[in-house]
Amino acid sequence: MDYKYVLKINGMMCGMCEAHINDVIRQNFRIKNVSSSFHKNQTIIYSEKEIDEQFLKDKIGATGYIVEEIVRTQVEKKKGFWAKIFHK
């Protein structure tokens, strides 16, 4: 199982803010993917392992943004095209 984290973040105003949040997350956590949207005040993280949510809030908070909410869900790993062919 993988983990999906949806963060509600206050303070993002532009694409550079999105990039700043994404860089902080990539530098401090082993993740599969991260994307941010200042229009939605949201960041989505996919990870193979659980993330320390307080450490995540602290790292983002140190950059001047405020994490208002974190929603974590488990998602099934997606299997690629070749997995479907070889594992029937």
Describe this structure in words.
This protein has 88 residues and is an alpha+beta fold. The protein is built from three helices and four strands, in the order βαββαβα. It has helices spanning 15-28, 53-61, 81-86; strands at 2-10, 33-37, 42-47, 66-75. Strands 2-3-1-4 form a four-stranded antiparallel sheet, covered by helices on one side. A hairpin with a 4-residue loop joins β2 (33-37) and β3.
Task: Give a short summary of the structure.
The chain has 88 residues and is an alpha+beta fold. Helices cover 33% and strands 34% of the residues.
Per DSSP, the total helix count is 3
Radius of gyration: 15 Å
Largest sheet: 4 strands, antiparallel
Q: What is the average of the pLDDT values?
A: 91
Secondary-structure element pattern, one letter each: EHEEHEH
The geometry reads as: globular
Helicity range: 25-40%
Overall number of strands: 4
Strand order of the largest sheet: 2-3-1-4
N-C termini distance: 20 Å
Structural class: alpha+beta
Beta-strand content: 25-35%
Ranges where pLDDT stays below 50 over 5 or more residues in a row are none
Give me the secondary-structure topology.
Layout: E1 2-10, H1 15-28, E2 33-37, E3 42-47, H2 53-61, E4 66-75, H3 81-86
Antiparallel strand pairs: 1-3, 1-4, 2-3
What keyword list fits this structure?
88 residues; alpha+beta; four-stranded antiparallel beta sheet; 4 strands
